[in-house]
Design a protein that fits this description.
The complex is a heterotrimer of chains A (about 550), B (about 350) and C (about 270).
Chain A (H helix, E strand, L loop, with lengths): L3 H5 L4 H13 L1 H8 L3 E2 L7 H20 L8 E3 L11 E3 H11 L4 H28 L8 H23 L4 H15 L5 H9 L8 H31 L3 E2 L8 E6 H26 L5 H4 L18 H9 L5 E3 L2 E3 L1 H28 L7 E2 L6 H21 L1 H8 L3 H40 L1 E8 L5 E6 L3 H8 L24 H14 L10 H9 L5
Parallel strand pairs in A: 4-8
Antiparallel strand pairs in A: 1-5, 2-3, 6-7, 9-10
Helix pairs in contact in A: 4-6, 4-11, 5-6, 6-7, 6-11, 7-10, 7-14, 8-9, 13-14, 13-15, 15-17
Chain B lengths: L41 H4 L1 H31 L5 E4 L3 E4 H27 L6 E4 L7 H18 L5 H21 L22 E3 L16 E6 L9 H8 L1 E5 L8 H6 L4 E5 L11 E3 L4 E3 L6 E3 L5 E4 L8 E2 L1 E3 L5 E3 L16
Antiparallel strand pairs in B: 1-2, 4-5, 5-6, 6-7, 7-12, 8-9, 9-10, 10-11, 13-14
Chain C lengths: L1 H6 L5 H20 L17 H10 L1 H4 L16 H10 L21 H14 L8 H4 L6 H11 L1 H4 L6 E2 L5 E2 L7 H10 L14 H14 L17 H24 L9
Antiparallel strand pairs in C: 1-2
Classes of the chains: A mainly alpha (about 550), B alpha+beta (about 350), C mainly alpha (about 270).
Main location (chain B): membrane
Family (chain B): Belongs to the Rieske iron-sulfur protein family.
Subcellular location (chain B): Cell membrane
Amino acid sequence: MSTVTDSQRKAPAGERVADWADGRLGIYGLAKTNMRKIFPDHWSFMLGEICLYSFIIIILTGVYLTLFFHPSMNEVVYHGPYAPLQGVRMSEAYASTMNISFEIRGGLLIRQIHHWAALIFIAGMLVHMMRVFFTGAFRKPREVNWLFGFLLFMLGLFTGFTGYSLPDDLLSGTGVRFMEGVLLSVPVVGSYMAMFLYGGEFPGGDFVARFYSIHVLLLPGIMLGLLVAHLILVFYHKHTQFAGPGRTNKNVVGMPLLPVYMAKAGGFFFLVFGVIAVMAAVASINPIWAMGPYRPDQVSTGAQPDWYMGFSEGLVRIMPGWEINAWGHTLVLGVFIPIVIFPLVLVAIAVYPFIEAWVTGDKREHHILDRPRNVPTRTGVGVAWITLYLILLVGGGNDLWATHFHLSINAITWFVRIFMFVGPVLAFIFTKRWCLGLQRRDREKVLHGRESGVIKRLPHGEFVEIHQPLKPAEMHTLTAHEQYKPLEIGPSVDENGVERKVSPLQKLKAKLSKGYYGGESQIEKPTAQEHEEITSGHGHH
Amino acid sequence: MSSNENSEENLPSAQGEGEHGSVERADNPFADPGLPAHRPRVQDIDERAARRSERVVAFLFTLSMIATIAFIASYVAFPVDKIVYIFPIGHVSALNFSLGMTLGVALFCIGAGAVHWARTLMSDVETPADRHPIEADAETKAQVLADFKQGAEESGFGRRKLIRNTMFGAMAMVPLAGVMLLRDLGPLPEKKLRTTLWAKGKVLINMNTNEPLRPEDVAVGSLTFAMPEGLEEDAEDFQTQIAKAALMIVRIQPADIKDKQEREWAHEGIVAYSKICTHVGCPISLYEQQTHHVLCPCHQSTFDLSDGARVIFGPAGHALPQLRIGVNGEGNLEALGDFAEPVGPAFWERG
Amino acid sequence: MKKLSARRRHPLAAVVVLLLALAATGGLYAAFAPAGTAQADETSQSLAIDEGKKLYSVGCASCHGTGGQGTSDGPSLVGVGSAAVDFQVGTGRMPAQQPGAQVPKKKVIYSQAEIDQLAAYVASLGAGPITPTEKQYDSAGADIAKGGDLFRTNCAQCHNFTGEGGALTNGKFAPSLEGVDAKHIYEAMQVGPQNMPSFPDTTMPEKNKQDIIAYIKTVNGDNSASQGGLKLGGLGPVSEGLFGWIFGLGALVAVAIWVAAHTAKAKKS
C-alpha cells in the first residue's frame, strides 16, 4: 500500500477514511475475510433473519414508547378523549398507554408495530429453531449456538410477558395475578417470593415499575449480548448447506456478502419492517381501552396470555386440582406441577442435540444438512414435540374452541388431558413411517429412474411405463446422506472367557442406537452395485 | 464418557470423501458431479431486459419516496381522533391506517427494490468457499497448554494454597452483599395472606350502588357483588384490599343447599362466597343460576355453590371460602366475622 | 411395519385414510358435542288475554303444559313474568327447536303483537317481571363510563370485555351481545334467562342497567370504532396470535422464499 506511486497518488476520500479507520481498528483485515463471505441461498435460512429484524424493530419502537409511557401505578382519574373511560380510576401506566393510543399522533401505530413485531419475533424464533432441528443444523460444531438460540427464545417469552403486563389493563392484570398464584404455589418460599416481587400484597404499587426495568433493560440487554454472540458464531462457523452437486462438507457454495447478500439481507430488513407496519395499519392488537383498567375484582372471559405463553396456559388449565395438606402446610401441586413442566417441555428440545450426539458418538463436524426424511427418528421426535406443543395450545384456548366449534369446555379439557400423552406417541409413529415411505421412494427413484408417464406396449402385449434415469446431480443429491450403523455391544464374554462389564448406560445407548439406525428405522440407500445390476440388465426393471 | 465407546466403524464415511475418490468416480453413479456450470439469466445476455429490471428497481425506490411524503402528509392532515370506515376493515382511525400503510409501503419498496436489484442485476454466479476445521491443530493446542501451564506456575496459584482459598472465600462471600440488598423488595408474608378486611359487624355494600345490601333485595337466581363497608374506591390500598375482600352473593332455595355448614353460614339461603378463585386468584363469577355452578374464566375451575362451593372440575385445589353473614339491627346484611380460612390461591403456610 | 408401508401406495390407500380421518373426526365430535336437556327460564305474570292463551296452546303447551305448570320437557312458566316471555320469544329462543346444552337464539317466528299476547297470558299465571317500557331501556344520556365499570364487574366475566360472548360449563355459553336489542338486554338482566343469573332492580337499579346498555351500544354497536384496525373478533390474544402466524409470519415466509429463490435462467438457445 505504501509504495512510492501510492503515496504520490491522491487517494479518493472514501479510501482515506477507510485508511484512517484501518490504522485504528484494523478493518482491512476484517474485511478481507468477510466482505466476500459466501452465503448459501435457501428460504429457510432467512427465518433467523426474520427474528433478527423483528428484534431490531422491537427495540426501535420500544425506545419510542418509553418517551411517553409512565411506568407508575399511582392512581389517576381519566379525562382523555376516550368516552367510555372518562372519570374512571386507573393507574398512570394505563392512562399513559391511553395517551399513546389516542393522543400521540402515530403512537397507536408504534404500539401496534411493537406488539405485532413481538408476536412475529417469537413465532419466528420457534420456526427458526424447528428448521435447525429438523435439518440437524445443531450438530457439531453448532451445539453452543443452538443453546444461545434457545436462551434467546426463553428470554423472549419472559420479555413478552413483562411487556404486555406494563399497561396494567384488565387482561394483563389477570396474567399478573396468575403469576402471583404461581409464586405462592412454590413450596416453602412461595409467599416470600410473591411478597418480594410485588413489594407486599398483590397488586401493591410496585410491579409496573419493576417489570418495566426488567422489560426494557435487564432482559433486552442480555438478549442483545446473546444475539451478538449468536451472529458471530454463525459467521465463524459459516452457514450450513443442503447436499447437492459441488456442495461438500468442506466447502460452502453460494453468493458473496458484498454485494448480493448485502442487498438481499439488507433489503429483507425493510421487507420485514414493511410487512409489520402494514399489519399494524390493518389489524388491531391489544386494544387496552376495550379491556379497561385493572381491578383485582374484575375479569373477562377469554382471559388468555399472548400465544407464546399459550402452551403453559394449557398445562395449567388441564391439571387436576391436586393439593396436599399435612403438618400445617400446603403443597399446591395443582399449580406447581404444571409450572415445573412448563420449562421442562422447552428444555426437552434444548438438550436433544446432546442426546443425539451421545447416541451416535459422532465427533465430526457436520456442515451438510439432513433432509428430515433421512433421519426418521429425529424427525419423529421433533414432530412429537410440536404435537405436544400444539395440543397444549389447544388446551390454553379451550374456551374459544368451545364457543367457536360448539363443543363442551369440559370435554376439550379431557381431550387435552389424554392426548397430551397419546398425541405425541401417535405423531412419532406416524412421522417415522412417513419418513421411511419417502426414503423408499427416493431409493426407487435412484434405482429405476423417474416415472415418465409414458406407457409403452411391448411386442408381447405387456404395457410398461417408461422410467427416465435421473441426472447425475440428482443421483448424487439423493444418495449423499450418511447412514449410521446401530451400535453393537458385542459379546458379553471376551475371547479369553472373561466376562465383560457392560454398564446399564451403555445398554441404553445401544438400545437407542438400534431405535435410531436399526433396520426398522432406516432404508438402506442404494449401492453402486445394485444400481449397476438394474441398469445393465434390461434397461428398466 | 470415553471417546472410544463408539467404534469408528459405526460412523458412516463422511460425505463427498473416502470411498468416492476420483479414481472410482467413473464406476460410481452417485459420485458428486461437481458444481454445475453457471447459466446466464435473461438480464445477463439481453441488455434490454437488464434495463427493464433497472427501471423496476428505480420505480420501487421512487414509490418509497412518494410513500414517505404521503406519510408526512397524513401525519399533518388527519386529526388524531378521526374515524373513517374502510372496507372491509371497519371503522378505524384514519391516522393509524394512513400512517401504517404509507410507512409500510415506504419500507417495503426499499426492500423490494434492493432484492430485485440483487436478484436480477448483481452477479448470480455461485462460488464455493473452503471451510476450515474449527478445532485448532495439534501444534497450536500444545502451545496453548504450555503457555497456560507456565502462566499458572508463575502465578503460584497451585502452590500458595492460602491465597487460593482465601480468594475463593472472598469471591464466594461478596455476592451476599447484593443478596442482602434485595431483602427490602417487600415485607415478610407474616399473616398478611390470612386476613381480609371483613370483620364482625361489617355491612355488605353492593358494588353497583354503593348502598348496604338488604336480604329482601337479593332474589333467588340473582348475582350480586359486595365489598366491606368503609372501603372506598379512592382509598390508597383499595386494589390490595379488594383483591382479597371481593365477595359474591347469590341466593339459593334453602332446601337446595346440600352442605349443612353452608346453610348455617347463610342467611335465609343468601350465601356469600369469596370472589377470588382458590386456584391462582382470578375473580371467579361465571355463575349458572340453574346448576348453581360457578366457573373461573381463567382456568375453568368449577365450584358448586349449592354444595359448600366444592371443586367439581378444573385445577383448583380447594373450595371457595364462605363468609358467614347475618342481618344487623337496621335490616342490612352484615359479616359475622372474617373468612375462616385464607382466601385466594393456596400457599405453603396455608395449612 | 414393512408390509403396511408397502401398501400405502395402493390406489385405495388415500380413500381409506380419508375415511378413517372422517370417521375419527365425526366420532370425536359426537363424543364432545355437548348433550343435555334444555331448560328454559323460570319467572311469570299478568292480564289474561284469550289470544295469548290460544297461541300458547298451539306453540308452547306441548312442553310447558296446558296451564303453564311445566312438564319434563319444559319448566313451569308460573311467575316468570311478561319480560321473560318477551325475551325468550322475541329473540327466537322459544319455541325451542331441539334439546341441547342451551337454547340458542334463532329467527323470530311470532310478530311483536303475538308476543305481547303470549306475554300477557303467561303473566296472568303468576306475578313476575313486567316487560320494560321504552323509557326504561332508553340509554340516551346514560353514563357510558359508569356502564363500562358495571359491565366489567357484573357482565364481562361471561360475555367478554366488549360483549363478544364466552364459554360456560359443559357446552353452555354466554351469547354475543352484538346487535341485541336494548330491550332484550334489559329484560335479560331483569329475568336471568336460562343459566344467566338475574340482576333485579333491587341490586342493580334501572339507571345502572341503562348505563350498561349505553356501554354495550358504544363499544359493540354497528358504528363502534376499532381504532387500531381489524377487531379480530374482539377475542384477545388467541385470535391475535392466529393472525400473527397466518398473515404475519405467513407473509414473511412468502417474502423470504422470493428473496432466496434463484431468478429464472435464460432459455438455452
